[in-house]
Amino acid sequence: MWLLGLPWALALLVTVASSGPSADTPDPASIFADLSPAELRAVRTFLMERPELGLSPSRGGPLAKNSLFLVELLPPKKRSALRFLEHGGARPRREARAVVFFGAQSEPNVTELAVGPLPRPNSYRPLPFKGGRAVPFWARPMTQLEYELLHEALVATMAPLEPLLREATGFGFQNCSERCLTFSDIAPRGLGPGERRTWLVIQRFVEGFFLHPVGLEVLLDHRDPDPRRWAVRRLWYNGRYFGSVRELAESHARGALPLARLPEPPARQLFSSYEPRGRFPSGTPTEVHGAKVCEPQGRRYRLRGNRLEYGGWSLAFRLRSSAGLQLFDVRFGGERVAYELSVQEAIAFYGGHSPAAMQTKYMDAGWAMGASSYELASGVDCPETATFLDAHHLLDADGPVRFRRALCVFELPTGVPLRRHFDSDFQGGFHFYAGLEGRALVLRTTSTVYNYDYIWDFLLYPNGVLETKVHATGYIHATFYTPEGRRYGSRVHSHLLGNIHTHLVHYKVDLDVAGSGNSFETMDIRFENISNPWSAGARPWVTQWGTRAGVGQDPRPAPRLTPALSCPRYHLAVTRRHENEPSSSSIYTQNDPWDPPVTFESFIRDNETIEDQDLVAWVTVGFLHVPHAEDIPNTATPGNAVGFFLRPFNFFNEDPSVASRAPVIVRPLDPPACSRLQIQRWTPASPGPCVHPEPFTYNGTYRQV
Q1: Is residue 584 a part of any domain in this protein?
Q2: Whole-model pTM?
Q3: Contact at 8 Å (CB) between 562 and 601?
Q4: What is the pLDDT of residues 285-304, one digit of tens each?
Q5: What is the CATH number of the domain that holds 598?
Q6: Last residue of a domain, one of 220, 254, 288
Q7: 571 plus 453 within the same structural domain
Q8: For residue 330, what are the β-bridge partners?
Q9: Which long-range contacts (CB under 8 A, 24 or more apart) does 579-585 make?
C-alpha cells in the first residue's frame, strides 16, 4: 500500500459520451461532457470550410490528401474548471480537439488543433505537444481508406499464390464472394523511425477468423502515399522465409514446398464459435435462466447528463474516442477526492517464432480503443436493469457516428456483505447479529480492439472505496503452429499456437484530497525485536510501522522501444501535474514507438519536488497470459482481471457506509434462549417480485447520424 501525505490511500491490488446536459439548466458536470452530435458536426463544418486547410472527405480519394481524422472534447484547463466549480467563476470556454492529417503537401504531417468556442466555432489554434514535437505523417493511425487499399494491394500481389492457397486451405483471395481469405495486421509497422511496413497474418474468413491462420505471413511496405508503389518485401510460410511472392510460388510449383494442409471447417459447431457443444456431467439445467440482478424498489442512483450520483458519491464522466473512460470531479460526501481518473493506455507484448508474433507489441490507444465501444448486450454485458447510454464519435468518418448502448450504469450485489458480525455468547446463542449487504455502483464500457475485448469498470462502494478494474476477454492473438513455436506459447488447436503475452494497463489518478496541494510518501512495516515488558527473558516480535521509503524504479537496461513503453515500467509513479502532460501516451505511439511525441519518462526525469504540490499518480496494472486450450473459443474473464483501489485512510471518523439504511440487526429478546428475536431493518421487510419482463433484444449497428 502506498499512502499519500493526506489521509487518502492509493492501494494497488494486482489481482491475477453520454447524453448531453439539459440546455435549460446545464449541470456543472457538463463542462466535461463529450461533444454532442451537433457540436461534432459544427466543428467538422467549420474546418471543412476553411480554405487554408484544404480538407477533403475522410472516405474515398487518395491517401495523399488533407483530411480530418478525429474530433473530441478538449477538456478545460484545471484551473479554469476549479474556478468555475468551486468559486462561481465563469464557465470555461468549450473547445474541441481536432486531429488533421496533412498529406497533400511537400512535407506531410499530423497536426492537432483546438477549435472553439462551441457550439458555434469561429477560430482554431495549434495544439503543440510538450517540447514542440511534430508528428510525422508516417506515424498517423491507420484509416479505413488505408485498410481498403491494403486489402486491394494484398489481393493483387497474392494472385500468383492462389493455387497454393486453394490447395492448402480451400480458400482464396481472387474473385472471392465466399470461402475467402482475410488478414490481421501487426504493429509496430517496422523496426525503426520512418518505416510503415506491416506484417499481415493471412486467415480463413470464418466465424472467429482470428483462430484460423493458414501459415502465411506477408510483410507489405505501404509507407508511400501512392499505393502503386507498395510492395511485398518478405513472406513467411509454414516456418520458412521467402524473399518474394514469385519465389514462394515457384517453390510450390516445383513441388519443393511442404504444404500446411488445413482440414475443411465444419458447417456447424466450429471450434472458434460460441455454439453450445457437449454436456456438463452433473446434468444440472443450463437451458433455463440463471440468477438475475433486480431493483425491487427502483434505482438507487441518479444520472443527470454526464453526472452520476450514488450514496455519498458524485462524479462526471466521458468516453474519449482516443483512450476511453475518463472521470472528473470525483467527490465523496461533497468533498473532492480526485480531479481526474482515466484510462491512458492498454499494451500487449507478444513472443513468438513467426515474424508477426515476434513483432507484435500492441498499444491500443493507437487503435482508438475509446471509439471501439460497441453495443452492450442487456443481460450479458450488463444486467437487464442497467441504464444504457449511447456514445457519439467522429473518428475517421465524414460525420458523427452513433454507438448504441456503448456505456451502462447499474447497481451490483457483490455477493459478499460489506461488513457483518455474529456476536456469539458461546453457550449456543448470541448477543446480536448485524450485517450490511454488499452493493456497488458500476460504470462500464468495453473496447473491442480487433481480437481482444476489454471490459472497463469503475465501481463505487458505500464505504468511500473506489475500484478500478479491467477484464480481458475475446479471442487470443494466435499464429500458425510450428514445432519451433512451442517455446513461445501453447498448442491450443491442431494448427494453432497461442502466443505468450503480457497485458499492461496504465491509468492517470489526479488526486485532490482536501485541495490540490498534496504530498506523497510510502509507509513500510517491519518486525522489531524487543524485550517483553511483562515476562523477563521473552522476546516477542512486534510490528513497527511508519517507516518511510522511496518509490522503486526498474534498473534493467531499456530496449529500443523504451520511449513508447516507459509508462508500464513503473507500478506507481508520482509527478507534479502539468497542463502539457495530459496523457502518458498518444494515438501516435503505436506507429512511432521509437521517438513518439509523448514520452512518459520525461514526466519523471525533471527532478521536481512533489511535496505540497498538485500531484498525479500514474498506475500500471497487468498480468502475464500463457494461452491454453481453455482459451478456445475465447479467453474467459475469471482470472484475467486486474485493477486497483482508492481507499480512505483515516479520512473519515468512521466507516461512512453507516449512513446506509440497508443494514440488518438481530437481537434476542430472551437470552440465552434466543426464542424471541428483534429484527431491525430500515428498508421494506420484503423486496417484492423481481423479474424483468422484457425479452432479449439487440441492434449492434453503429452508423453515421
Answers
A1: yes
A2: 0.91
A3: yes
A4: 888 888 889 898 889 999 99
A5: 2.70.98.20
A6: 254
A7: yes
A8: 338
A9: 579/77, 579/78, 580/129, 580/130, 581/130, 581/616, 582/75, 583/323, 583/344, 583/508, 584/344, 584/345, 584/506, 584/508, 584/618, 585/323, 585/344, 585/345, 585/363, 585/365, 585/506
What is the tens place of the pLDDT at every residue in 497-551?
Answer: 999 999 999 999 999 988 888 888 888 888 888 777 777 666 555 565 443 333 3
In 3D, which of 268, 158, 134, 131 has the Cα closest to residue 216?
158
**What DSSP character marks residue 33?**
P
Total structural domains within the chain: 3
Question: Is-contact 427 421, C-beta < 8 A?
Answer: no
The rounded distance, in Å, linking the Cα atoms of 594 and 413 is 46
Q: 468: exposed, middle or buried (C-beta count within 10 Å: 0-12, 13-18, 19+)?
A: buried
Closest by alpha carbon to 478, among 354, 362, 641?
Answer: 354
Instruction: Give the residue numbers marked as catalytic.
Output: 364, 452
Write the single-letter amino acid at 25. Answer: T
Identify the CA nearest to 257 among candidates 243, 238, 274. Answer: 238
Residue type at 450 in one-letter notation? Y
pLDDT, one tens digit per residue, over 366-387 is 999 999 999 999 999 999 999 9
Domain carrying residue 56: 28-127
Q: Answer whether residue 227 is part of any domain.
A: yes
Whole-number Å distance between alpha carbons of 105 and 108: 5
Kindly report whether the peptide bond that precedes residue 633 is cis, defined as omega within 30 degrees of 0.
Answer: yes
Query: What is the CATH number for 55?
Result: 3.10.450.40
Structural domain contains residue 680: no
Indicate the burial class of 595 (C-beta count within 10 angstroms; 0-12, 13-18, 19 or more): middle
